[in-house]
What does this fold into?
Amino acid sequence: MTRIVVVTSGKGGVGKTTSSASFSSGLAMRGYKTAVIDFDVGLRNLDLIMGCERRVVYDFVNVIQGEATLNQALIKDKNLENLFILPASQTRDKDALSQEGVEKVINDLKEMGFDYIICDSPAGIETGALLAAYFADDALVVTNPEVSSVRDSDRILGILASKSRRAVMGETPVKEFLLLTRYNPKRVEDGEMLSLQDIEDILRIKLIGVIPESESVLQASNQGLPAIHIKESDVSEAYQDVVARYLGEEKPLRFTSYQKPSLLKRWLGGK
Amino acid sequence: MSFLSFLLGEKKSSANVAKERLRIILAHERLNGDNSTSDYLPQLQKELMEVISKYVKINPEDIKVNLERQGQLEVLEVKIEMQQKA
It folds into this structure.
């Protein structure tokens, strides 16, 4: 059975593409045949984050419009044997996607034996975002500990609950997971940032992981390497935990509390 | 809280302010839902005006349409003031 996962947020710049790249890589590392689709027509970036931008020949829209086969458009990941990327079109406008077209591509991927299809949603709540969410079985709602991101996530949860295929067809609802990104435990401790408990209280969905704010995310995107591949970084470990939890394993939260430098700590007599 | 802020007296942390603001705005937005129910009020007011003015002379400002939520109950209030004959 193929599982379709949308990575969504409403707000832009919170880490959807970073998370899509690492989450899909993590599933492929576990041996699952995984496809990751960029739904951001006109502003594609997944190819850059995955480091395959120079290998894009055909794209999602070409496939939908019958100008290329799915096999021609799928790009094999350079790091992982069973990971494939379907890039968005950079030149068409966002209305080039249709529900029937997307459904056909998803059904073809299912027939090709993919275990997971990850849909990297564009920001906003227009066609691309609605279509990325429409076929989802599960949703990773990427949220920053910041008021506008939390509000937009709440809006996206409303859309998943009313406009997804599962909602329209009256099936069991989309499983929603909260993925907190750019989390800074020190600022939380100082009362300058919403805590994960605050955000869980407000959004009331299951927390699947917390990705700490980290320099390695920029280092990863500079190189076109999903952050999960940056060895021994907090971000990589945190994404691996997310994948493990998604697959049903129990993993305690990590990187969510601030460790003060010990000398200073004793000197100031702090916590 | 740092030692300094303790000395200066406890101020409400900005994270708490953020949480409270979110609670209030999201409670409001969730009530209105996806198809905001109050969208039709101006149109309703206009059409009521058209129907009523067929029979009675009336000014646009004499019709007041208001939607209120009291707990689980939604109350649509329409108030039409008839002009007194001079």
